[in-house]
Amino acid sequence: MTMAASFKYLSLEYLSLALLAGCAAIGMPVAASSQSGDIAMDAQVESPAIFYDVEELSIAELSDRLARGDVTSSELVSGYIDRIGRIDRAREGGPHLRSVINIMPNVLAEAARLDAERAAGKIRGPLHGIPVMVKDNIEVAGPVPTTAGSTALLQNITNRDAPMVTRLKAAGAIILGKTNLSQWANIRSSNSTSGWSSVGGLVRNPYALDRNSCGSSSGSGAAAAASLAAGTVGTETDGSITCPAAINGLVGFKPTVGLVSRTHIVPISHSQDTAGPMTRNVRDAALMLTAMAGSDPADASTKDADTYAADFASGLSADYLQGMRIGVMRDRVGDNPDIQEIFDASLRQLEAAGAVLIDIADTRSGFGDLGEAEFTVLMVELKADMNAYLASTPATVKTRTLADLIAFNKANADTELRWFGQDLFELAEQQEGLDDPAYKAAKRNAKSLAGPKGIDRLLRENDVRFLIGPSNGPAWVSDAVNGDNFSGPSQSQLPAVAGYPHITVPMGYIEGLPVGLSIIGTQWADHDVIKAGYAFEQASKARTKPAYRATVEMLLPK
Cβ neighbours of residue 448 under 8 Å, at least 6 residues apart? Predict the structure, then answer.
């Protein structure tokens, strides 16, 4: 079933949701309705047509099927659009995840073009004709805004691709659409509800719909888990790839800062920001990263990226961990007995795969004021980097500085501030700037404590290649009144501040809610960390697909 159709971009009251036009273009009846706090319009989609079943199909599987001629990219795109309509946007009879903000209006034409290339014998690689989605703080050329989840940027139609997107397209990937996110990548308020944006509403966790999908790449996490794309791209400053990946039962990879360009991505911190893949298995993450990685003259941090870019899917082996010494961060496991049980089972699986586990009793001493130093860096760089980004946007964007955003939010409080405030924005606006000696000292201190005196010291002193610990606790109930209720361990800070690679891989479930295993390595050890993640994945085979339960029904004794 090959469908040829063109998308017409459809302007709605607040947000142009190309999904509506896309569904109409392939013969799917659509009715739109709005929901309080959900400015992206919801599509009621019903169709008697039979679409290609894309659920749980990996990038590698799809690539093989495309190569055999079992399916076309046009059919895959149509199948994903149908699935988005049924699972993400349909309010009656579907989970209504709210993980997708936009479908690209030219996506079927792009699929047809790549099908024609394939028919002519031009195959760009394993991503040729594979539909993926990117977080809506990443620019993609075309008549869709890059909003960072805020109505302040509804006119931010830049018609430029982020260099990372250019690389994905060059590898043959189809940018299917843009995913929802925690507004402003979760840096606006210290009491936020992760996964909420005024553009897209609140993302639901596909494993239990009343649970949170974590921030800020919440939409990328939920969409990948629900098979709304073959893979997604998230961004992380501190935990915003690894947390939503782990909580949504995914593999999430945060690269070494500087391996992937950040140009044309709405920023928080040039010291810590990076984009990375979020997928249902490690090989798929490696395939996406291979396409994404590389130097960009406009991003000085990537000057060495071409040196370290690689075919990250090469050398993946279940035997990689044979004889490998791995440091177990015992003091970062937490006191939840369910997490402890799952983690201990994962350690046994690692040992069965040949790893030599070295207990590290103290991984917390010697970090002094790391948290304070990191916070100082984030606040100063938020103001400087946001001002620089906003200055580069089209003239149609009227918020040209962080101060303008603060004023916009106050003037549009019913839409922008209805769930939580903007104390972090206001604090960042008070900062002196990148030339402030206090900022420079904090930046040096943070990098040193997390990197050479942190991860590198722990690896060296214990003679281990990697550090491991539970990525997270299970997802919490979303709460618009009290904000996030993070529970359990988190391993994101050290690799985030150091700028070192960090992968999370599913390791088990608590009452059906996913938890992940974190593997952390030194700077530029991205390929090694991915290979370790793959070996653990093959030993554990822990991931199960989401059930879209309304809530967690505790398994109580009868």
Answer: none
What is the number of alpha carbons within 13 Å of residue 107 lying toward its C-beta? 33
Which pair of tokens denotes residue 48?
A: 């008697």
| Chain Cα centroid distance, residue 493 | 16
Whole-number pLDDT of residue 50: 77
Task: Evaluate whether 312 touches 527 at the Cβ level (below 8 Å).
Answer: yes
> Nearest-CA neighbor of 536 among 229, 328, 335?
328
Helix (H) / strand (E) element for 31: namely: strand 30-35
Alpha-carbon distance values, 364 to 90, 118, 330, 376 (Å): 46, 53, 10, 20
* DSSP string for residues in 258-299: TSS--TTB--S-TTT-EEEEEESSHHHHHHHHHHH---BTTB
**Tens digit of each residue's pLDDT (9 = 90 or more) over 178-208:** 999 999 999 999 999 999 999 999 999 999 9
pLDDT of residue 49: 60
> By CB neighbour count within 10 A (0-12 exposed, 13-18 middle, 19+ buried), where does 120 fall?
exposed
Report the residue count for the chain: 558
Q: In whole angstroms, give the CA distance from residue 287 to residue 314.
A: 9
The tokens for 417 are 């501030």
The letter for the amino acid at 546 is P
Active-site amino acid positions: 135, 216, 240
Residues 6+ away with beta carbon under 8 Å from 260: 164, 274, 275, 276, 289, 292, 293, 294, 302, 305
Secondary structure letter of residue 153 according to DSSP: G
How many Cβ atoms are within 10 Å of 178's Cβ, its own excluded? 29
Rounded to whole angstroms, the Cα distance separating 164 from 374 reads: 26
pLDDT of residue 165: 98
Place of tokens 């103290």: 362
| Interaxial angle between packed helices 73-83 and 59-68, expressed in degrees from 0 to 180 and rounded to the nearest 10 | 140
pLDDT value at residue 90: 79
pTM of the model: 0.93
Q: Which of 256, 241, 187, 181 is nearest to 491 (CA)?
A: 241
Instruction: Count CB-CB contacts under 10 A for residue 436.
Output: 13
Q: Which residue has the tokens 């960042």?
A: 428
Give 461: exposed, middle or buried? Use CB within 10 Å, 0-12, 13-18, 19+. exposed
Could you read off the pLDDT of 109-129 as tens digits, one per residue?
Answer: 999 999 999 999 999 999 999
Q: Which of 18-22, 270-274, 421-425 has the lowest mean pLDDT?
A: 18-22
What three-state secondary structure class fits 506? strand
Give the amino acid at 502. H
93: confidence class by pLDDT, cuts 50, 70, 90? confident
pLDDT for 554 beyond 70:
no
**Phi–psi pair at 372, nearest 5 degrees:** -65, -40
Query: Cα 489 to the chain's mean position, in Å?
Result: 19
